[in-house]
Amino acid sequence: MTILVVDDSKIMRNIVKNHFSGLGYKCDYIEADNGMTALQLLGTHSVHLVLLDWNMPQLSGLDFLKKARAMPQYKTLPIVMVTSESARYNVIEALKNGATDYIIKPINDKNFRDKISKIDFSKVGNHK
């Protein structure tokens, strides 16, 4: 399983990877520091899950989400927003545009585990 971690902060990418690794899944990680790079990586890698920040240079997480969902091959790819944007409006906007779920930073272990455990990885195919 390959996880795409998208955040403009390397420290946050490492924190997100550590939280995911703590769940016990065997996986590989690829990383992007903005939405534009993340879109390029989607085209060149088989990705099973995207963990996505909202505020990034070049292409925001929300814009990445809209572009990915507009492509048929990514309609069912699990994309979980992991962001400090906690306003109800932002959560609704992300879910309305196809986010699989929404995790607010700072990351709470139990909340992270509960949200990720809802994803049925046995039904997640390669998205490339």
CATH architecture label = 3-Layer(aba) Sandwich
Helix content: 25-40%
N-to-C SSE string, H for helix and E for strand: EHEHEHEHEH
Give the N-terminus to C-terminus distance in angstroms. Answer: 13 Å
Radius of gyration: 13 Å
Going by helix content, strand content and strand pairing, the class is alpha/beta
CATH class: Alpha Beta
- Please identify which CATH superfamily we are dealing with: Response regulator
CATH fold title: Rossmann fold
Give the spatial strand order of the biggest sheet: 2-1-3-4-5
Number of domains: 1
Poorly predicted runs: none
User: Helical segment tally?
Assistant: 5
Describe the sheet with the most strands: 5 strands, parallel
